[in-house]
Amino acid sequence: MSGAESEVVATIRQYVACAETMDFAARKALWDHDEPLPILCPEEATEPLIGWQALDAYWSRSRVTMADLKAMATHFTITLLADDVALATYDNRWIAHMAGPTEEPAISADVRMHALLRKKPEGWRYFQLVEGPVDLMTMSRQAAHRSAVELFPELE
Questions:
Q1: Could you tell me the residue ranges of all domains in the chain?
Q2: Lowest-pLDDT range, 13-22, 55-64, 78-87, 131-140?
Q3: Checking phi first, is residue 38 left (phi over 0); if not, alpha (psi -120 to 50) or beta?
Q4: How far lies 14's CA from each of 17, 24, 65, 72, 101, in Å?
Q5: Average of pLDDT values for 64-87?
Q6: pLDDT at 100
Q7: How many Cβ atoms are within 10 Å of 54's Cβ, its own excluded?
Q8: At residue 152, what are phi and psi to the nearest 5 degrees?
Q9: Whole-angstrom Cα distance, residue 51 to residue 30?
Q10: What is the pTM assigned to this prediction?
Q11: Of the segments 68-77, 91-100, 134-143, which one has the largest average pLDDT value?
Q12: CB of 124 within 8 A of CB of 83?
């Protein structure tokens, strides 16, 4: 992995780590603030979020709808499209407890991520991020497997 590719992965890991503290301001800081129309396509959104107002509203809602969030990124493929633009694909597993008056079981998903990042003086910054969940049948099989492994670790 080249130096630039390693820097992109480090930025992605930093972005994903913000989940641990639910620090959406820190996530926003890893976006290119000079980008006039940033695009974020969360897996749960019915339409792409385009522009800073839409992204800020989404992050504000996320902070109050989730009690906690954990995430992990793996399987990085980084392609430099130019000296200052990178295409990153990676897998992201997230686990969250939703906020509410009662203790609910955690929900989780495995999501394929597709991001465009731009090299800025302060480092690599996102300007587009698309989350692509696997299909519902695969999601169900993965959830069933995780549950089975919890009960019977030898199945792993």
A1: 3-155
A2: 131-140
A3: beta
A4: 5, 12, 22, 11, 31
A5: 92
A6: 76
A7: 17
A8: -130, 80
A9: 15
A10: 0.83
A11: 68-77
A12: no
pLDDT value for 139: 64
20: its two tokens: 């641990």
**38/54 Cα distance (integer angstroms):** 9
Pairing of strands 123-133, 39-41: parallel
Q: Is 102 exposed, middle or buried (0-12, 13-18, 19+ CB in 10 A)?
A: exposed
- Confidence class for position 72, pLDDT limits 50, 70, 90: very high
Cα radius of gyration rounded to whole Å, the chain = 17
Measure the CA–CA gap between 22 and 62, rounded to whole angstroms.
9
What's the topology of domain 3-155? Nuclear Transport Factor 2; Chain: A, (3.10.450)
Q: What pLDDT sits at residue 134?
A: 65
Exposure b/e, 117-139, CB count within 10 A at least 16 = b = bbbeeeebbbbbbbbeebeeeee
* Residue 87 exposed, middle or buried by CB count within 10 Å (0-12, 13-18, 19+): middle
